[in-house]
C-alpha cells in the first residue's frame, strides 16, 4: 500500500467542495488514514513549499494558502500517488481532463483546489510536515 498527502486548498473549502473531492478519492478505493481541517501558518507552508522559495509566485502562494481553512489528508491505497494525481487533473485547469477535480471545478492555475504529493519521497516528507508522523 502506498500513502500520499492531499490538501484541499482554501478555494475548495470556501466553495463547499470538500465532500465531493473526498468522495472522488473514496470511489477509487483510497482510504483516508488522516484528515484535519486547519489553517496553515507561514512556518509549515515554508517547509512544505521549500522548493519554491525565491520564485516570483512564492509569496502569492503562501498568501493564498493562508487565506482560509484547508483540509489536510493522508490517503492510502494501491498506487495512491498516481491515482490521486489522475483524479486531481493537471495543475492548469485549462489543460485538466474533464472528469478530474481541476477539470470540473478549477478556473485558474493559481487557485486549483487541491495539492497532492508527486512522488514517494515527497509524500513521506509532506506527511511528516503536516502530521508529525515519521
UniProtKB/TrEMBL annotation:
ATP binds at residues 9, 57, 85, 91, 102, 112. Residues 1-134 form the Nucleoside diphosphate kinase-like domain. Its EC number is 2.7.4.6. Its cofactor is Mg(2+). Keywords: ATP-binding, Kinase, Magnesium, Metal-binding, Nucleotide metabolism, Nucleotide-binding, Transferase. SUPFAM superfamilies: Nucleoside diphosphate kinase, NDK. The active site is at 115 (pros-phosphohistidine intermediate). GO terms for molecular function: ATP binding; metal ion binding; nucleoside diphosphate kinase activity. PANTHER family: NUCLEOSIDE DIPHOSPHATE KINASE. This is Nucleoside diphosphate kinase. The lineage of its organism: Bacteria, Bacillati, Bacillota, Tissierellia, Tissierellales.
Amino acid at each position: 500500500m502506498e500513502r500520499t498527502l492531499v490538501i484541499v486548498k482554501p478555494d475548495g473549502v470556501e466553495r463547499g467542495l470538500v465532500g465531493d473531492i473526498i468522495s472522488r478519492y473514496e470511489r477509487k478505493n483510497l482510504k483516508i488514514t488522516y484528515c484535519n481541517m486547519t489553517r496553515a501558518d507561514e512556518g509549515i507552508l515554508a517547509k512544505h513549499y521549500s522548493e519554491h522559495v525565491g520564485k516570483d509566485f512564492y509569496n502569492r502562494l503562501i498568501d493564498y494558502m493562508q487565506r482560509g481553512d484547508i483540509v489536510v489528508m493522508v490517503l492510502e491505497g494501491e498506487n495512491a500517488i498516481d491515482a490521486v494525481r489522475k483524479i486531481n487533473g493537471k495543475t492548469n485547469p485549462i489543460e485538466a481532463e474533464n472528469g478530474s477535480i481541476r477539470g470540473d471545478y478549477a478556473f485558474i492555475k493559481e487557485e486549483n483546489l487541491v495539492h497532492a504529493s508527486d512522488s514517494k519521497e515527497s509524500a513521506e516528507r509532506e506527511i511528516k510536515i503536516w502530521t508529525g508522523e515519521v
